[in-house]
Amino acid sequence: MKTDTKISAKKSWGKALARPAEEFPLTQLLVKNGKIPEGLRGTLYRNGPARLERGGVPVGHWFDGDGAILAVHFTDAGAAAVYRYVQTAGYQAEEKANKFLYSNYGMAAAGPAWLRWTKPVKNAANTSVLALPDRLLALWEAGLPHSLDLQTLETIGIDYLGNSGGEFPYSAHYKRDPMTGIIYNFGVTLGATTKLNLYKSDATGKIVQKATVALDGFPAIHDFVLAGKYLIFLVPPVRLKVLPVLAGISTMGDSFEWKPELGTQILVIDSETLSLVSRSETEPWYQWHFANGFVKEDGSVAVDFVRLADFKTNERLKEVATGELRSDGEGSLWRVHLNPQTAKVIATEELLDKACEFPVVPAAEIGQESRYIYLAMYRPDVDIIPEVYGTIARFDTQTRNLTIADCGENGYPAEPIYVPDTSSEKGWILTVVYDGNSDSSEVWIFDSDRLSDSPVCQLELPGVIPFGFHGTWKSAV
Fold first, then answer.
1. For 317-360, how does the pLDDT look when each residue is reduced to its tens digit (9 = 90+)?
2. How much is the average pLDDT of 389-408?
3. Phi and psi (nearest 5°) for 87?
4. 68: closest CA among 133, 132, 129, 114?
5. What number is the average pLDDT over the span 300-326?
6. Among residues 165, 159, 132, 139, which one has the least CA distance to residue 147?
7. Which CATH architecture has domain 2-475?
8. CA distances from 101 to 97, 113, 416, 424 (A)
9. 163-184 burial, b for 16+ CB within 10 Å, e for fewer?
10. What CA–CA distance (Å, rounded) separates 362 from 364?
11. Could you state, in order of their start, the residue ranges of all structural domains in the chain?
């Protein structure tokens, strides 16, 4: 029976990744059902790997696919969308050659192994987006962002964020303080000492302050959290075996080791000075994404995140690119309570004992206590292992109630994005849904307070949008 389920999955969600996505120009969208809310004005941006093969050769990992950006503009005239690949130097060179040329997370560069370390790693620009007043940044895990035009998505070029030049890592998981507009981010560099590079930018994206903190080994740090006046990093016990990567005999993705004996390291950073406040360690776990963090009345810090037992998730995500999943590797929603002055754990609790990912809170509540966490989850009637997420949900941290929006059989949503209404106190949840029955993609809009109801509007997109990672909303006002 399980074999039949896998075949079904291969024929449904796998089709979204089976061929390179096709760009489309700015196109007015047809309303399939419902009506666009009058207070929904602005642009939804989404990023994700859109090309997972070249010349018949597949990528080594889902993380390797070339990034493409979807923009959906909501105006008084309706909704219009545009979809374009980020024109990185690596993408353009491989387009011309019609083959893979560069190393990436799960791929080794073409040519002799002993020469691979001399070739640059391709910036796939495929993970997230940062909307600034005058441009959109396509973000990647380990390099500089690329600037794009906010309306047309035309690639302008590498963005040095106001610095004089030179490459440096700038993570895909920034945090923007809704009270000040300050943007925080990080990047990890390997050298004689591994460094956690901390960046503070003004509202225009210009980096105005930097700092570094020494790290042990070369860990896998994907995300962090802003919690009031603190930046919190939970460093999982995953370390890179550097020599096989430098020797060209192993990819980075295959060279990370799960080392639970190291425990999870906790770093507390002062957001004003970017200085280390405290450092500690606790039991081992892994996490990709945080929902939020905040300072409680007693001065302790609460951090909400999706916790995984180990690093098996890496293999599962590698399999996504093949269109067929065999490995387990899911997490559930947890909260950890910390003493920020010592970084010691006061308590941990599982908030929701169901597999989930892509936790988000409203942008206006980042760094503060937020009642609702929005998530991507599985349909309750499916075998999780061969499936991808089929629902989005809202978790109430006060009542512990879970409200689910089921996208139907062979319906697969992206990360939910909360959007405030411009003319009222209402909020909307936007997601891009791939329909495996019709092999098409749509934008679905839900009332955030009535998530279990049918979407208030469904918009037909002119092409398939492969499963991606992260998005953002830029309001028109």
1. 999 999 999 999 999 999 999 999 999 999 999 999 999 999 99
2. 97
3. -85, 70
4. 129
5. 97
6. 159
7. 7 Propeller (2.130)
8. 8, 13, 34, 51
9. eeeeebbbbbbbbbbeeeebbb
10. 5
11. 2-475
